[in-house]
User: What shape does this take?
Amino acid sequence: MNWQTDIDPNYITVTLGTGADEGKVILNGGGFSNKKFEYDENNMISVPDGWVSFGGLYRGAGFQVTADSPFAVKLVNKINYASAMQSHLDGGVMSYNDLHKAVVGANALQRGTNVRVTKCVQPFFFFVEDENHADSPVYRGLCTFGSGKADDPTWGYTGQTTFMMVEGASNNAPLADMRVPWDDEVEPSFDDGEQDGWIYDGAVNVDLDKCTFVTDE
Assistant: This one.
């Protein structure tokens, strides 16, 4: 587990703003350089472009689960206790990425980078705490935390037109579940004139995103 390595390791110094900066705090050190943020009635500071650890260090806008994975910016904490598939988020997706590298090799987006073909997650201990920090954190169990689906740095998406993301609209949709063939019964779905997926039996079964959209014109 890592974070931005170019962050200044010094602790953050906090100064209350005056004049035009009244109602704000000015942060320096720990990766900040005269950064100004508003604070609320509980003196809680919102950091929109990064996160601050309990030690008071600014950790940057991303989180790196492993040393060889990209800094993810779309982060998901999976705590679905009812799912018997919970373990696939850890072992399954990690193993698939390793297998792809060993058998297929690097695709066009992966060459010379640490881009992956699956998200990168690890098991963590999950705690909850009162929003006013009045009580001690309470342990709620295990979770898997890391990059979410379609996290741009993990998959190497930078807006290129050759990129396309296809995802099942629902886990039990017939087409997404591969229980029916992708044949002439499958039709494109359009939203505001742009294709956003594919329809089977009157319902959207597969979503389309992050690509140059086909129009119905």
